[in-house]
Design a protein that fits this description.
Blueprint lengths: L4 E21 L9 E4 L8 E8 L1 H18 L12 E2 L5 E8 L1 E2 L2 E2 L4 E3 L17 E13 L2 E15 L13 H30 L1
Parallel strand pairs: 8-10
Antiparallel strand pairs: 1-2, 1-3, 1-9, 3-5, 4-5, 6-7, 9-10
């Protein structure tokens, strides 16, 4: 039996990890404090995923479809479905769509990407945060030891407005550079003070 689908339009992409499979590594990241890192498709917890920001009306509409899918699939012992989205300070809502990178040890087909004219994008395309996208989702109900809910299984992405990607620097700000900025700020304030004194002297003559 096929799962119900949902088309979510004009949302903002956040932290997309769609160019290859990723999973959480407790020793990953710049400071070894844990991070999502690239991995093999068959690695434990490997997924393709993207967070997205949407309006309150969009959140209400998709949750209605999720609730309908859940009611259709639920068994008597399943608990009630609760709103899974996070509300932000600007009164928007953030959700997550993902696709397991493998099923039963077999790699899955990554989510397809299309441009605004519906042309397929190259497999090497890397979506960036801040881009405006449409998402084609499959609604998959679940209940188990990890909780209950409706997974938004990502099948395809259409990029409506691409925001140019800027790679983050892997380096920390160095102490001497911070001291340089501090000294420059100090000299600037001192110069302004001298200029003010000079003007006061001139005005008193």
């Amino acid at each position: 039996m096929s799962k119900p689908s949902y088309m979510l339009n004009n949302v903002e992409a956040l932290y997309p990890k769609l160019d290859q499979p990723y999973h959480f590594d407790r020793q990953g990241g710049k400071n070894k404090q844990g991070a999502s890192v690239p991995c093999a498709a068959t690695a434990q917890g490997a997924t393709y995923q993207v967070n997205f920001k949407m309006t309150a009306d969009q959140a209400k509409a998709i949750f209605k479809s999720m609730a309908e899918a859940y009611e259709e699939d639920k068994e008597e012992s399943w608990p009630a479905l609760t709103m899974p989205f996070t509300k932000t300070e600007d009164k928007m809502f953030v959700g997550k769509a993902k696709l397991p990178a493998s099923f039963d040890g077999r790699p899955t087909t990554p989510p397809k990407h299309y441009d605004a004219s519906n042309n397929p994008l190259d497999s090497a395309f890397q979506l960036s945060s801040g881009s405006t996208i449409n998402l084609f989702l499959e609604l998959v109900s679940y209940n188990g030891s990890m909780g209950n809910g409706v997974s938004l299984r990502l099948r395809a992405v259409q990029v409506i407005k691409y925001k140019e990607y800027t790679a983050a620097s892997p380096f920390d700000t160095q102490l001497y550079f911070r001291m340089f900025l501090f000294r420059m700020a100090y000299y600037l304030l001192y110069f302004k003070y001298l200029l003010l004194l000079f003007l006061l002297v001139v005005l008193q003559k």
